[in-house]
Amino acid sequence: MLRWLLGILILVLGMLQYRLWIAEGSLAEMKRLELQVQEQTAINRALEARNEILEREVLNLQNGNDGLEQRAREQLGLIREGEVFYQFVEKDERDRAASSRENE
């Protein structure tokens, strides 16, 4: 009789250990989920910072022409009427441009 009781206790202990280390809700799964939460929190922080920058740009574009003018100058290379545009080309760039024309 004592052997049966000892066998049942060992079986129950084994089942509890299985649940603790391997099964759903185990310590390993909890650690994995904590790491996922940390990774997602870092991703969310980066996205929130990007969203704040974009929100400032949108507000700047909505509130005045300064932001629009800056984007036109930087991204499209536009100039105002009556302005003179000077472009300085580095010596290395001129040499590369000349050599690429010669190779064609």
How does this model look, in words?
The structure is a single chain. By secondary structure, the protein is mainly alpha-helical. Helices cover 79% and strands 0% of the residues. The protein has helices at 2-21, 27-63, 65-76, 91-103. The model has no long low-confidence stretch (mean pLDDT 83).
Q: Estimate the global geometry from the Cα principal axes.
A: elongated
Helical fraction equals over 70%
How many runs of DSSP E, i.e. beta strands?
A: 0
Q: What proportion of the residues form beta strands (DSSP E)? A: under 5%
Secondary structure blueprint with pairings:
Layout: H1 2-21, H2 27-63, H3 65-76, H4 91-103
Helix pairs in contact: 2-3
Structure summary:
The chain is mostly helical and 104 residues long. The chain is 79% helix and 0% strand. The protein has helices at 2-21, 27-63, 65-76, 91-103.
